[in-house]
Amino acid sequence: QVLLVEKAGRRSLFLAGLTGMLVSAVAMTVGLVLLSQFAWMSYVSMVAIFLFVIFFEVGPGPIPWFIVAELFSQGPRPAAIAVAGFCNWACNFIVGMCFQYIADLCGPYVFAIFAGLLLIFFLFAYFKVPETKGKSFEEIAAVFRRKKLSAKAMTELQDLRGSEEA
């Protein structure tokens, strides 16, 4: 796993894992919806579950721990990892406790909720999460500073254009 992360990069593996999980969640939904019409859809659902787990283990399972450790300097890193761990386990607990109720409510479309969330996670990661492979903390922090400065510059530019029109 570590060799794959070092070779392919954190962000690309994370995005690939999210994409695979999204496709698997859609396949699980289709399999469950069409199960009453086609008996072989049970195999589609089963393969989709296995692929979902595989893609999770390649991307969203381990990669966030790499990224959290690399986004923070030595001082705040333990606190950041503790907060990330708390959020991870709290969300796992909530999903575990609520899944049966949501499945009863949504029926075969229960995994469509997961697909929607995975799409949101993918878009967030695509636009906001930088590649941290081979970069020092200072280089990663500089990426965030550049994004913040460019957003501020765009706002100032819009303000200037607005005052010119008045």
TrEMBL record:
Residues 1-133 form the Major facilitator superfamily (MFS) profile domain. It is found in: Membrane. It is a multi-pass membrane protein. The chain crosses the membrane at residues 12-34, 40-58, 79-103, 109-127. Keywords: Membrane, Transmembrane, Transmembrane helix. GO terms for molecular function: D-glucose transmembrane transporter activity. The keyword Transmembrane helix applies. One of its GO terms (cellular component) is plasma membrane. InterPro entries: GLUT (IPR045263), MFS_dom (IPR020846), MFS_sugar_transport-like (IPR005828), MFS_trans_sf (IPR036259), Sugar/inositol_transpt (IPR003663). The keyword Transit peptide does not apply. Pfam families: Sugar_tr. GO terms for biological process: D-glucose import; dehydroascorbic acid transport. This is GTR2 protein. It comes from Vireo altiloquus (Black-whiskered vireo). The gene is Slc2a2.
